[in-house]
Write a structure and sequence with these properties.
The chain is an alpha/beta fold. The chain is built from eight helices and eleven strands. It has an eleven-stranded mixed beta sheet with strand order 1-2-3-4-7-6-5-8-9-11-10, sandwiched between helices.
């Protein structure tokens, strides 16, 4: 956990109250590897273990889909198996990771720097792309990956370190992002919208966090149009996955107070830019 990021981090229960350092155990390369942060408002203490700040403790997953994501095997396999092929399969056209990541970083406007957050980061794919783009741009800023799953965050951190990238990782809920209002210049999300549970609450957090010139970019999956696809999605729905139609997704965006700036659809894959 980067010392310079600490002033940005707030209590998940009191989101305008900064967390303060309560204890520092081990420091490596100028970052906190072990320690504790504390909320001055409610006195709750949160641990930093192996560089990951945990704001959820023993919170149980809210759905089968979320439970699968906390399994170490799922965290290990995600980018090694499914993720590189996902968009090509779901869009019905060749959609390699390079194309997806270029699209995300260009739409996000990484060259503005500042606080950039990958919400529901899984193995940190978008977070790594943001940090690489930030370095190429030569701008100051922080990239933070947030997820419910500790194994996913551990895998994400290992991948970032192997790539020589400095990314901060926090275990937190998409409906309670631990930052003060108006502090995020960039928010991204890669497919996690379909499994995070309360979509309106998550998008309301995007509206709260985005700075006046901030930008959000999300990749999500829409409802299938064919009968076979709809049947399959309905079966997945029993495990907690949601597949809103494009109209429903855009209603969620509008109800959260966000403005839809651009949108593209490839098969059931949807890219949305909001402010």
């Amino acid at each position: 956990m980067d010392f310079k990021l600490l002033p940005y981090i707030t209590c998940p229960c009191h989101r305008e109250t900064p967390l303060r350092v309560e204890q520092i155990g081990r420091v490596v390369d100028g970052a906190i590897e072990t320690g504790r942060l504390r909320c001055s408002h409610c006195a709750t203490s949160y641990p930093i273990v192996d560089g990951i700040l945990d704001l959820l403790g023993r919170q149980w997953p809210g759905s089968i889909a979320q439970f699968v994501n906390v399994l170490p095997l799922a965290a290990w396999a995600y980018e090694r198996t499914w993720r590189p092929l996902a968009l090509s399969i779901l869009s019905g056209e060749q959609f390699p990771l390079e194309r997806e990541l270029t699209l995300i970083t260009e739409l996000a406007g990484v060259e503005r720097g500042g606080l950039m957050i990958d919400v529901g980061c899984s193995n940190g794919l978008y977070a790594r792309a943001l940090e690489q783009a930030r370095r190429r741009s030569g701008v100051d800023g922080f990239v933070v990956g947030i997820d419910l799953s500790l194994p996913m965050l551990q895998e994400a951190r290992q991948r970032a370190r192997r790539a020589g990238l400095h990314i901060n990782f926090i275990r937190a809920s998409a409906q309670a992002l631990p930052f003060a209002s108006g502090t995020a210049s960039v928010l991204v999300m890669g497919g996690s919208l379909n499994e995070i549970g309360d979509i309106p609450a998550a998008l309301a957090e995007w509206r709260r966090l985005l700075a006046p010139r901030g930008r959000g970019v999300m990749m999500s999956l829409a409802a299938a149009s064919g009968q076979l696809g709809r049947t399959f999605q309905q079966a997945l729905g029993s495990g907690g996955l949601q597949f809103p139609t494009l109209d429903e997704l855009n209603q969620y965006v509008a109800q959260a107070g966000l403005q839809l700036r651009a949108q593209w659809q490839y098969g059931i894959v949807v890219f949305s830019v909001v402010q």
